[in-house]
Amino acid sequence: INSQSKISLSALGGYNYIPMENFSHFLNEFSNSDFDKFSFSGNFKLQYNIENRHNVFLSSEFINTNASFSGGFVSVIWTFEALPVTIGYEYMFKNFDTDWTPYLGLGISYVLTNTEDKYLGDDGTNVTNYKENTFGFETKLGVEKVLIENLLLVSEIKYRFIGDTKLNKYTNVVETNLSGVCFLIGVKLELF
Q: Span 85-99, mean pLDDT?
């Protein structure tokens, strides 16, 4: 049975599915192109229990994926990074007959993004970074299981929407979108 700790800290890791629809249409114009729809994600969450079933949280997550194309004597490799900082609410479905507790969550995010564009050609290598900030939101469904006192196993699946950002400062035509579905698993430590 879950104790009623007021403050807890969670660390989770998992995989993202990021289809990047706008960018994938752009890449389809090139014959030798590829991008990673699946990528690793790391998440840290500070949680405050308002009362029995209601929590507010502050979390941050690192999202990273890659894309590339090559043709003739030129190759380009893109690295897309996002760091959403999310504030949100979770409703815990307390069941006092078991150590399992399902929950639903909703949050709004301020997202820091960076796109690294590495151009490899006959005339050398050129690397540029483009930073742009945007907003997003997330919805999630999760479950917690008590492992030992004050330590819980946490698993969640979430849909994350992140607003479109430009590929680089030179174009308004090609946009990137790091929205997608994420599966995370990790541990939660109830502090006090």
A: 89
